[in-house]
Amino acid sequence: MLLQELLGIDENIYLVEESYLAQRAIKSTLQYLSGVRNFLGGQSVRLLRVREGESTLGLLLFNPGDEDVPVDFWSVFTGALAAAPLKAEFESSADLILALNSPEKEIEVSAELWRDAVNEYYSLMLVSRNLCSVCNVRPESYGSVFSENRVQKVSGIFEKLRENGYSPGGKVLEVCCGNGMSTLALYRLGLDPLAVEVNKCTVCQGLEQGVLNPRKALVMDARALSRYFEPGSFDVVLGFMLGLVYEFNSELWTGIMREAAAVSRNGGLLLFTVSSKPEIEILAEALRNAGVEGEIVDNTDAEGVYDQWFFVGRKN
Ligand SMILES: C[S@@+](CC[C@H](N)C(=O)[O-])C[C@H]1O[C@@H](n2cnc3c(N)ncnc32)[C@H](O)[C@@H]1O
Questions:
Q1: What are the beta bridge partners of residue 63?
Q2: Got the DSSP string for 98-166?
């Protein structure tokens, strides 16, 4: 696990927040830290500090095994994924603790690598079924789920883009990634997307099959992107085979388009594919209303199923 590698520890690790998304609000983290401060009045504890320069990204507190929990483990507290005011609150709380109790080790890590490590922790929890009370999903074989033709279809879109002067790169977000079928094409093109999907079983399948990168895959509702990412966070925002998009459910998809535009930087590239022309027209209108200038492209083939139409454009 990347967290253990970065920290140079073998013991188990336990993040106090129940999910990656909960790391935005860090409710439990702040509560626990205030408890730790009070507890430190009389005794010392084993602490590790994770930092980037002067700022504290994380704090680890050692918990020796006892009768109730017979194994040693480290509790991990971090504010690195929290909204700015909470991040500041975390740092001042952590610094108060560090002033009372020196850490036995300080580990310098970039904030990006630290976020990847936290992301990976939750992916591993998901794929090992630790986030579900029961699992009724039957494992499927790789061949029955992933199709090379589909990867080729997505790759073909990028060839068209390159011919038209687009060269996607930088910080990439893929929304509605499913089990990673389309993400696979992005990886092969050398992109390193953060892939989000609302259905946790689908993400779990992609992780289990070794398709989705556990450091960059998240269970997240794409209608809430701007709650978790700052405006303008991404150079490229993509989504493949969105839909089915109908007038009656268009609010779901137009909501995702608005959010995609909100987290794209100005000048950033946006690309979305669907199966039919009426669907792409609905998405295109939503994107234009959100300040994205672009075009609908006919990508139809004899099979007539996947990625038949796409919208590509840039945010103004
Ligand atoms: C047809 S699948 C496409 C999956 C993948 N992009 C591909 O091309 O193979 C559409 C995906 O959108 C996901 N989805 C629907 N609503 C969503 C939302 N609000 N946030 C994130 N994902 C969503 C679905 O769960 C489904 O996995």
A1: 73
A2: HHHS--SEEEE--HHHHHHHHHHHHHHHHHTTTT-S---PPP--HHHH--HHHHHHHHHHHHHHHHTT-
Q: What is the mean pLDDT of residues 187-192?
A: 96
CA of 240 to the centre of ligand 1 (A): 8
**Pair of tokens at residue 85:** 């005011």
Confidence (pLDDT) at 144: 87
* pTM for the structure as a whole: 0.94
Which amino acid, residue 176?
Answer: C
Q: Which atom of ligand 1 is nearest to the CA of 181?
A: 9
In the chain, helix, strand, coil percent, each to 5?
A: 40, 20, 35
Ligand 1 neighbours, Cβ below 6 Å, are: 175-178, 181-182, 197-199, 202, 221-223, 240-241, 256
Confidence of residue 260 (pLDDT cuts 50, 70, 90): very high
Mutate to test the pocket of ligand 1, among 175, 176, 187, 299 (most ligand atoms within 8 A of CB): 176
Q: How far apart are CA 256 and CA 282, in angstroms?
A: 12
Residues 6+ apart with CB under 8 A from 80: 23, 57, 58, 87, 111, 114, 115, 118
What spacing in Å lies between the alpha carbon of 222 and ligand 1's midpoint? 9
For residue 285, what pLDDT band results from cuts at 50, 70 and 90?
very high
Q: Which residues contact 73 (CB under 8 A, 6 or more apart)?
A: 11, 12, 13, 14, 63, 65
CA of 241 to the centre of ligand 1 (A): 8
C-beta separation of 42 from 103 below 8 A: no
Q: Which CATH class is domain 143-315?
A: alpha beta
Q: How remote is the CA of residue 252 from the centroid of ligand 1, in Å?
A: 11
CA distance 155 to 189: 7
**Sequence ranges of the domains in the chain:** 2-127, 143-315
In whole numbers, what is the pLDDT of the chain averaged over residues? Answer: 95
Q: CA-CA distance, 160 to 188, in Å (whole number)? A: 16
Instruction: Name the closest-CA residue to atom 13, ligand 1.
Output: 176
Ligand 1: which residue has its CA nearest to atom 27? 178
